[in-house]
Amino acid sequence: MEAAENLERGLDSLPPPSNLEPESIARLRTGLVETERSFVGLLERNGIRKEDPTGSAFDPNLHQTVSEQESTGCAPGIVLRALTPSWTLNGRLLRPAMVVVSRAPTMEPSSSSPRLNQTV
Fold first, then answer.
1. What is the DSSP string of 3-60?
2. What's the rounded mean pLDDT across residues 40-49?
């Protein structure tokens, strides 16, 4: 699981493909892509699945909240971003996803509301 994530991070850290890049970089990218694809395929054939919960409802059985973020664009309790995916083995949790979950915006006190405990 961790090795698959590290391969993905390695691929994400490479600059975007370009016609001007050296052949060695293009071959390195191709090799990493094929290695990751092969490794994830091996895991899947053995019942291990990686799931990105982004956009789904928070499930404490599959997710671990790292932080909450105010959101007006979606209901409270929705996974806004997954820092790591969840991993399951034949439907059983191996490692929860580390996620950022939406929460309702806090109400700002209006400036025209009376203040409590004012001393004059």
1. HHHHHHHHHHHSPPP-TTS-HHHHHHHHHHHHHHHHHHHHHHHTTEEEE--TTSBP-T
2. 96
